[in-house]
Amino acid sequence: MHLLLLIIAGLVLWKIFHPSVSRGKTQVVCRNCGTKALSKTRSPRSFWIEIILWFSYLIPGVLYTLWCYHHTYEVCGTCGSRDIIPADSPAWRKLAAPYATDVTPLSEEIKR
Questions:
Q1: Which residue has the higher pLDDT, 31 or 21?
Q2: CA 57, CA 5: separation in Å to the nearest integer?
């Protein structure tokens, strides 16, 4: 029993402090609402199901927590849509290219 608790504590600490598992807060562009904002991380986790599984049996609680952790996804920070692309990706540059205009400074417009 002590070994199992030690393993669980190790997994929790690894999840918190390991740099490769930090997710979210990346600059994205939403194809649904068109905003360029920071993303949010969503999970299919249900708090009450997780509590019931943790208190009824330890193993299903651990499995459910790990399943929820591995099924997280990024959404738009504004509207919550999953249809997002990174703001620094080639796909975004390709979509934004028709809207980019050559802006002439006002001082050059006055000289004409």
A1: 31
A2: 13
